[in-house]
Each structure stands twice: as structure tokens, then as C-alpha cells.
Amino acid sequence: METYLQITGDTDGVTVEADGGTQTIRPRCHESRWWLAPTCRENSTECIPSLLYDYFGFPWHIEEVMQKAAVWEMPLAIGSAFADFSSTSGPYFRLPLTHDVVYVAVHPDIPNFFPQATMQIAFPRHSAREWQRGVASSMSATWSNSMIAHKDLGELAPDFQELLRRMRFYGEDYEHVSLAISTQVDQGQATLLSLACEWLQNNTEVWKAWVPVVTSCFPGHGLFGDGSFVSSRDNATTCRPCPPGSYSSPFYDYADTAQCQQCSPGYWQSSYGAVTCSPCSPGKFANDTGSTLCNDCAQGQYQSAASSSSCEVCDILQTTSIRGATEQSQCICKPGSFRGATGCELCSTGLRCEGGDIPLRQEEGFWVEVGSQNSLSVYRCRDYRHCPEGVPGNCASQRVGRACAVCRLGYWAGHDESCRPCQTLSMVYVLVVAAVVLFVGVFPFAAFCSCSSFTTKRTLVSFAIATIMGGQTAIALQAFQAISQLNILWVQPVKEFLRILAIALNGFQTGVTCFVEGTSFATWSFALQLLGFPAFVALTSLPAVAAKIGRGINLFSGLFNIYGLILVALLTAISIAVVMPLKCRKNPNLTYTLEAHPQVICWNSQEHETLVLLSVIGVLVYPATILSMLLWATYKYPRWLRSDRGVETLHRLHFLFGRFRPERYQCCLIFTVMNFLIAITPVCLPTAPQIVAMCVLLWVKQVVHCLWWPWKIEAANWSELVLSGCTVLFFSLATPLLDLEDGGTETQLSILLVIIFLGLPVCFVGAAICAVLSKRNRSHRYTLFLSHHKLSSSMLCRYIKVVVAKLAPAFHVFYDADNLHNLDTLFGTLKNDVDVFLAVLSANVFSSFWCIAEMTTAFANKVPMLVLRCDDPPYIGENFMDLSTSSWAEEQLFLLHSNGLSLEDVQATVAHVLKLPHIQFLRTGSASQQEASIIKVLQNVSGCPVLGEPSEGSVERARLLVCGGAQPEAISSMLVMQQLLQSKLQVPCYVVRHAAEIGLSKKASRLVVVLTQGIFAEEEFAELVLSTDMEGWAKVVVNDGSFDFPSPSLSAYRDLQNPELSAAYKSLCGSLALPFTPHLSETLLHQQMEHICRRLADDEQVGGESAMSRVLTRSSSMASPAQRTASSSSLPSQSDGGIVDDDDGNADYVQEAF
Fold it and tell me: C-alpha dihedral over 827, 830, 832, 834, to 10 degrees?
């Protein structure tokens, strides 16, 4: 409408509307539903109606008709009417039949819709340029049948295009259709649709020739059927364009057709109906079939070839600056790495690597050593000023060596770490040494000569106070130096103060490079430190020697006290100095160098070996000697006080004890040891334990001083308090600067903090609970009381206790040999301290007074009772009670009555015990069966843990075998041995009872033979011995206390006709049997077991990586072949108490394992 308004200027013919800053121009309806042309707008009766066809509410061609009406002054009244081309009954087709109107021909066959003749209004010839500018006053473009289809119809609908291509209409067809329209449609006898259907039905052969075969696919299409593309006509119903990611592949069966195939890896296609797939260009890849797009190679990858299904990965630590790299040469080093001799290498700490081909640089405080093959090794410098940032190997001016540690020959390091010419040092060095020598050397002589001037006590006390405080200050400064050795990131100016303090306390290394090469600087400086005190003693003794020779004055006693005081006072600094070669620091190249001399590589260089040797000498000469002499003197102090000569000795050692009160003489040793520990803490411990240890030492020293207040002079006590407090405060303020970069430091520190944090309430609660419990009940309470007959079931009850200790460690079991120390306490224990009473019913149990007394006491006091019935139960006859009580002594009956028990109680108890449910115990059964019975007992005890079925041991897995007799007590004794050995040695042990089991053993090489009463008379043991090559086994023989050694003929046991068996028995009896008495006290039993284990340790290994194997490995490696042979053939002698002492030195190793 903008063009209409510009051409005609007819503002009255349009309506301008504003909507959000934009204008919309619409035709104005001058009368209802009619737009009037300017020519007849004043008088609408002069206007000729003009119809436009309405399509979805829009009047088509309205602007064209408005322009023509205005330009050519045509009196038109424009309106719109609905048009339905499927029927002529609509208003668009009906109104021209009843009125004279002008209408727009919107269809090339529109005149055929009207029976009356129509006349076309002629306008100037069509001007394409004017129509391009929007001017529509000329004739509109003529209709072209060639534009009936879409330009891509051949690709989008080739079958329809083929239909149009084959379609042929002839003249008779047009004449027939036109005649039918004029004769039938106009008369209302038919419609256009019915005429079309009639023509199709009457001309089947004609239009069937037009329809293409649906499965004859054209290029760009493929066979399709059942919802997917197929490869055979049999499954196809139509053709469809090939989707993206595929292409049309033609083939011929009985006619031309095509199928869609997916693009291969390395190829792609993004369009529909494609006939080929395009290869991926270099730098791109397609790793799947049917790709619609090629992906760029990711950063760090490249591809130089086309049609690739993957990309090549750059070498390790390499990347590319862009995606889609096409050459390997585009791979560059990643940031944080650099190009080395063999490729890109990871940039370690101390290097600045920007990646690519940018040369690397060393960071400030680090020094880079370039190897023969351009390999790089990074070291930490002692001071950041030694190694400025720059190219690898860059050092500060006049500094040389690894890590730029030393100055060149002829230069020395000043206070600012810069190297200066030695001419500036010589005079200062001489003056300082001379001053020290004169002060210390002349002081005793001056004091002796001027002693008369110290006439008042106040003067002497003031001098003593000054001396003591000076020593205290020196010790505090040394503590500061020790704290400075911790892994703390010091800041200025504290860092500078600590460096000056270190120079003052280690001044002997100053200026060494003025005389020696830097390569041997560390050795010479350390040697000078070790020789410093002897040289100091030698120089300062010269005035005393002169006084002795010249005037006969003996000043050596005073000098001895001065030297001793200096050694004790400077022990911290001396200790720090002598352990210097042991304090190494880790470098980024994973090597260790000395912290004080980073040019020396730790543990891998001859220079460090020399330094370590000198360090050992220094430790032995200085701290070890001082502490040993101090410990000896402190130990002898009380004795020396009892003799005159001892008092003279103490006078010579006045520098040790004279400063403290006599009752606090131990403080010299305590404080000196603490000073030594403070000195070595930074060397011996990692970062986190360093902090904890240093904190504990400083606070313990402070607490000891506050509790003991040891100094003789009160001012010295307050001075010590202030100086120690300042040291603790200094350390506390420095801990936030702790260096946590060391791996694991933060974790270690957090664990220690949590332990300390949890330790406070735990200690408080534990102390409170212990106090309450100790006052509430000082006696022991037993979970289970074992009542048994001593002769028939003592070994069994020991086995029960061992198993209970294994299964339920919290249970406290009463076993008379262990817990009964006085018979008078037995009944009280049963009444008050027993939770569950277990009656072990074995042979003769009811014939024992004590067994019946225990049962009766438990029953009378309503103690819960359990009954364990053995496979050798006691005999209960009609006259049982009469027979039992008749054998009791009067004292026993009196004891029974004194505890409130009668014979009627005994009868009721026995009846009650027999009525209780019995837990069967098969004493000749396997270990698992017996353990299962014990588990049943425990399951009836309150608080018993959840216990599963016991596992059956395997002789095939056993490393150690236990054998013995077949009697019930003998079996129990062997089971006790098996349990204890397995627990102590931590190797599989197995009890063998039959000869066949020995043959099943595959790993065992050791055999423990338990000798019990009557064992040689048992056929099972004889068979076992005969089936076993006793000489081939490393065996240990033990005696459970019931075995009686037979006579040499063995005739007292059985008629031995077998010489092999006789020889085997004689061999067993010829071995020294170790004592093993399970029925006695637990303490003695464990001592016996330790010796049995020690005996087993004398021979070859029992198990792989067990504790015992480690013991055997160490002991066997130390013993000579002769000793090892002797240990297997001859055994040590038995000592009193059943304990045997070895002489081969293996006991220490066994104790370590156990």
C-alpha cells in the first residue's frame, strides 16, 4: 500500500495505523465492504462493481486493481467474494451471472466457469521493470504452464514429475471436457469432479501408461517399505529421498532402481536425496557410519589425510593451538611443559613454561642444571637472592656451583647474600676473633687478680645474675634458631633477624671461600665448626698457661667451669651444627640436598658421605659425650654428697649443679636433654610431627620450670619464665606460616589435631569412669565359671577358655588354675561375681567334693547354670549320695555347712543338674565339632557376639602339625597347643590323629609331638609314628606333665616287636621334651609357649610372610651353618620353672614377632 500512496497520493483511499512505532497502511472501506475509486468516490452510483476472490479472508490482487482504477481513472467499486473452485455455486461465480461486474481472472481456465461470453479489459503491455518497483498499472504477466511445479520437484517428488512428464492430453480430450462442462455442469447434471472421475474410468489404458512404477527409484531416492529403507523390491512399497547421512546407490534387477546406503566412516552427507557421500577433509573425521557432518579434530589431535574416521593424537604433553589441525607439525607443547631432547616434558617446580616453542626460564629461588643431552634438573636455592629468574643455570653475581650456593674463590657472602671481595673481611675477622679470645682467656685471670674488688655480696650476686641471664638468653636464642629450622615460610623482617642469628651462631663458615674453592666449601666449613671449640679452648688457654708458668697461678679450674658452662649453654647450637649433614631438603628433581649447603647431594655423593662421617664424629664428641657425662654426674650426685672427694668433684662441676637449688639438681639434665631434643626435632621428624613435638617440648619445659622453680636466684627464675614464655609465643605466632606444600603435611597435621582434640574429652571421661568403677567395685566379675574335675577334664576346660578368649574376648572366664588364689574366696566368688555357671559333666565329677560344692553354691544362690555333658559322663547309682558323702572329710562337711549348705541342698542340686538341658560334647570328635559345642554354650550367655559355624581345619593347608595321644585329655591338650601356636605364630596349624592325615599334608614341615600319659601304649599313635618318617621332620617334643618316661627296654608299656617303632620311641624319648602344662596357671603356660615358639624359630621357616617367617629369616641369616645344624639336633637345657633359655641370640627376634 505504500507504493499505491506514493503513486496516487490518494490519502483518502487508505487508512494509516500506528502500532508500536511502526505504521500500517490499509485500504479504506468508503461504504460497507466496498472501496470506491477516486473517480466515483463522490457519487457511488456511478461506480462499477469489481469482484476480487476471497481466499482465507484476504482479497487477492487488491493493490493491483486499486492502482489501475486510480491511474486510469476507472470508476470501480472494489469488493471481495468467496471463491470455491470445486463448485460454481459460490458468490464469486454466482454474482457475475446476475450482475454486470468486473472480476479478476485468477485462473487460466476461469472463462470456462461462466457460460456467458466475457470480455477482457486491455491495459498497456506488461512492464516487468514497473512491476519490479511495485507499479502495477500495466497488464499483468501472462500465465505460464511451465511454472506449475516446484523447481525442486524432481528431487522432492520425482514420481509426480514423471507422471507429469508422461501425461498427454490431445485435442479430442479438451473438446470432450469442454462439451461436458457446457452440457452437464451448466445444467446442474454433473460437477467438475464427477466429470474427472468419469474420464478416468473411461480412459483407464490412457492414464495407466502415465503412472510410473513405484519401486523404480530415481537418483537421490531409495527403496522404502514398512517404515524403513530396504535393499530389495520385494520389501519395498515406494521410493523416498535418501536422508542425510546416506546416498542413493543405483542398481538394476529387472529395471533401473536405487537403494539408500549409509555413508562409510570418513564420509558425510548433510542433504536429502544425495547420490554420493563427500570425504572428510584433512583436519576432520567421521567415526560412525551415516555421518551427516564431519567433526573437527579436537585440540591436541590432528589428521593430515582426507576421508579419515579418526584423528591422530599428539604426543604426550602436546596439544594444538586450534581445532581441526591438519599436520603433526601443528602439535606444540602444552602450557606447563617444554620441549626437551625427546619431546615435551612436564614443567616441574622451579621452571616457568609457557608452552609452545617459547624457551623455558628458571624461577626465582631455583637453579636449573642443564645436562649433557639437554636434560634439566631443578634444585632449590638456600636463598632466593642466590638464584634470580632467568635462563637455566643463571646465578647471582660472583656465585658458582650447584644451586649458586657459594661465592667464587676470593669472595665472601655479606649480610645481604651478595658476594664481596675478601679484602673487606680480613680486618673484621681478625678483630672479632681477637676480642673473643681476649675476653674469655683474660677473664679468669682478671677475676682472680681482682677478686678483692668483689667485696660485697650484692656485687657477687649481680654478677651471677648477669651471667645466668646471659646464659638463659643464649639458650632462648638457640631455641629461636631451632624453630627457624622448621618448615615455616618466614616473612620479613623476621627472616632477616633469623638469618643474622644463624650467622652469629655459625660464624666459622663465614669467609671460608676466601681460602678454599667453592666445591669443597661445605666440608671445610663443617670441619671448621667441629674444630671451633677445640681451637677456642686452645687459644683461650694461652693466658692461663702464661699465668701458670709466669706467676704460678692455676686458672684452669675456672677455665674448666667456663668451658663447661659454654658447652651446656650452647648445646642447642652445637647440636644443630653437628646434625646439619643429616637435614636434607627435597628438590623438584626428586633428589635431596643439604638444606644449609644445597650444592651437596644427600646420600649419593662422596662429599655428603664425608660430611655424614664428620657428623657422626661430631655427635659422639659433643652431644653424646655431654649428655652421657651429665647423666653420669646426675646419677652420682647423691653419692658424691656423702664423701669429701665427691664434694671436690661437685665443686669442679659447679657449672652443672651450682646454678640450681640442691633439691632440684636433676634440672640441669632435664633442661639439657630438652634443649638437645629441641635441636634435633627439625632433623628427625617430618613437618607435622615437628610442630607437635616442638610444641610439647617447649610447653613441658615451661611447666617443669613453673612446678619446680629450680634456679637458686629468684631473678633467674623470673627471667627463665619470661624467656620461655617469649619462646612459646614466638613459636605459636610462627605456626600459621607453616609450609603445607610438602605432600601429606596437611593430612598429618589434621590427624594430629583431631587426636589432640578428641584426647581431651576422652581422657576426662576415661579418668572419671575409672575413678567411679574403681570405687564401685574393686573385684573382678566373671562371665563364665568353669566347674570341672581336675583329673578328667582340666585340659578340656583349658581348651574351653582358650576358645572363649578367641570367640568372645570380652568374656572373663574363671578357671581355677588361673583365678583361684585362695580356697576361702571360692564360695564368695560364686555367690557375688559369677554371671553363668558351667558344669562340665565328665567321669568322676560327682565324686569330687569341690565340684559338688561349687554346683550347690551356684544353685543355692540362683546363679544361671549350663551343663556340658561329655562323652564320658559320670555314673549315677541308687546309693550315689551315700557313697559320695561317705568319702568326704569332716573339714569338708564343716566347710559346706559354714556356707549355709546342707546335704539336702546337695541332693537337690544334683537332681537339678541332671534335669537341665545338656549340651553334648564329643571329646573324641574333631576340632570343629568341639568348637561348635562351645559355641552352643556361649550362645546361652548374655552378651555373646554373633557366632557362625566353626570352620573345619585343613591338613593340606597346615604349615605346622600337632600330634599326640588319643585319650580325651590328650586330645584337649593337643587342641590347646594347636590354638596357641596358631595364635602366636600366625600360621595354619592342624591336629593329626591318624596316620592317613600325615600323608595328606603338603606344606607342613614341622611337627609338635605332645607326650601324654600312656601314649606309647596306644595303637593309633604307634601307627602314626610308623607311617611318618620322624627323622625327616623337624619336630619339637613337649610333655604335658602327665607323661612318664619309660625304661630303656620299653617293656613296661607294650611288647614292641617292631624295631622301627622301638627306634622311633627311643628317638622321641631321647629328645629333651619342653614343658607344656595347660592345667597349670595361664602365666606359666604363656611362658612355656614362648619358649616352644622360640624352639620352633631355631629351624627353617614355617610360613611365608607371617611374623614367624620374618623371625626365622632374620635369625637364620645371622646364624652360621654349624649353629643352624646344631639347633636342629641338640636342644637347650631345661631350667627351673619350665622355662628354657637359648644361647643362640634368637630370643630377641622371637620376642619381636610375638
Answer: 160
Residue 936 lies in a domain: no
Secondary structure E strands in 533-641: 584-586, 592-594
What's the CATH number where 1128 sits? 3.40.50
403 in a structural domain:
yes
- 0.70 surpassed by pTM: no
Res 1131: pLDDT: 29
Decide the pairing of beta strands 351-352 and 361-362: antiparallel
Residue-wise pLDDT for 511-546, tens only, equals 666 776 666 777 887 888 788 788 878 877 877 788
* Cis before 1121? omega within 30: no
- Report which residue type is found at 423: Q
Quick one: pLDDT band at residue 83, thresholds 50, 70, 90? confident
pLDDT band at 648 (very low <50, low <70, confident <90, very high): low
Q: Residue written as cell 561349687?
A: 854
Domain that holds residue 768: 750-776
Q: Please tell me whether residues 808 and 916 are part of one structural domain.
A: yes
Single out the residue in 735, 761, 796 at which a domain terminates: 735
Closest CA to 308 of 292, 336, 277, 284: 284
pLDDT at 427: 64
Q: Single out the residue of 779, 909, 772, 898 nearest to residue 833, CA to CA.
A: 779
Same domain, 1020 and 1076: yes
Whole-number pLDDT of residue 733 = 82
Q: What is the pLDDT of residue 114?
A: 62
Cα 685 from Cα 486, distance rounded (Å): 10
Which pLDDT score, from 0 to 100, does residue 881 have?
A: 61
Contact 1038, 1091 (CB under 8 A): no
pLDDT at 81 over 80: yes
Q: State whether 430 and 534 are in the same domain.
A: yes
Which residue pairs, CB below 8 angstroms and at least 24 apart, start in 343-350? 343/315, 343/316, 343/317, 343/318, 344/315, 344/316, 344/317, 344/318, 345/317, 345/376, 346/317, 348/378, 348/588, 348/589, 349/378, 349/588, 350/378, 350/379, 350/380, 350/588
Task: Looking at the structure, tell me whether residues 692 and 630 fall in a common domain.
Answer: yes
Residues 807 and 876 in one domain: yes
Q: Does the pLDDT at position 944 exceed 80?
A: yes
Q: Which residues of 580-605 are buried (b: 16+ CB within 10 A; e: fewer)?
A: bbbbbbebbbebbbbbbbbbbbbeee
Whether the pLDDT of residue 976 is over 90: the answer is yes
Taking a C-beta distance cutoff of 8 angstroms, is the pair 480, 493 a contact?
Answer: no
Note whether 328 and 344 are same-domain residues: no
Examine residue 327 and state whether it is found in any structural domain, yes or no. yes
